[in-house]
Design brief:
Distance between the termini: 40 Å
Shape: elongated
Radius of gyration: 21 Å
Strand content: 15-25%
Number of strands: 12
Structural class: alpha+beta
Amino acid sequence: MPTVHRWTGVEVRALRDAMRMSLREFAAHLGVSERMVSKWEAGRENIQPRPVNQAALDTCLNRSDPDTHARFAFLVGDSVLSAGDQEAQIEPIGSGQVNHPTDGSAMIMVEGSVFLGGPGNTPAWIPGYYIDVFPVSNEDYALFVAATGHQAPDHWPDGQCPPEIKDHPVVFVTWHDANSYATWAGKTLPTGQQWEKAARGTRGTVYPWGDQPTPAKCNVRENGVGQTTARDCYQSGVSPYGVYDMCGNVWEWCSTESKPGRHELKGGAWTSPFNRATPSSFNDANATMKDDDTGFRCVVAAETMDELLRRR
């Protein structure tokens, strides 16, 4: 898919015409004001949007259908286009994957870039970070409990991790429990934006696997599983970064505080209807809440991980 070497007001107008959108529709789709789009278009080749907006324009072009690409190429000419594909730059699972030195978890790099987030696909710049490929499992959490003496989850008989669910996401953890694990491991809980970018990639697809609503690709209520599943069960539902369980299985705690004492939850769960498991959907809960459908995963800033790996 094409990208633009350097966006000016000329290419902005060409993209809007190629997408066959009104000024209002295009501004809403891009996540900027109508006044800003008007300013770009009026300035024509003498005005360049800021880098964050240029990246967002590239993303919008990449997400468009082939007919829109063809119309855009006809309007601007091939000389302003490059053949780069933003999503092709994303590293799939197994490429760029490392194991964290404290808890041994597999983590994968999410590059610093603009992504389209929230129900309105608003462009935002997120610096680079590593995210757990899988949610924290019962087996992972058992290491933390053994090392720190932290209270075991309610569903573990006699405080011991049941072998049959050792590779399932840990549940019955409060936000405080999840944050304590992250601190012990030298990590943090992801912000809502970090979590969503890892789930949707830079193009702002509706689901981790694309835009097609396919409940069979995740553990949600419609499938009738009725409990958590192993973290690598839904291989066809991985995100563009190769991250598992970003739709269904368990809700995941984020560091983002929605109100005092409340934090965002992302991703839906085995108890959730499919339409609640959309990664852009908002949910939150009191930090003391714990349930059989709520777990978490962790992140590490890219520069922190690089330093940890150099010390090994």
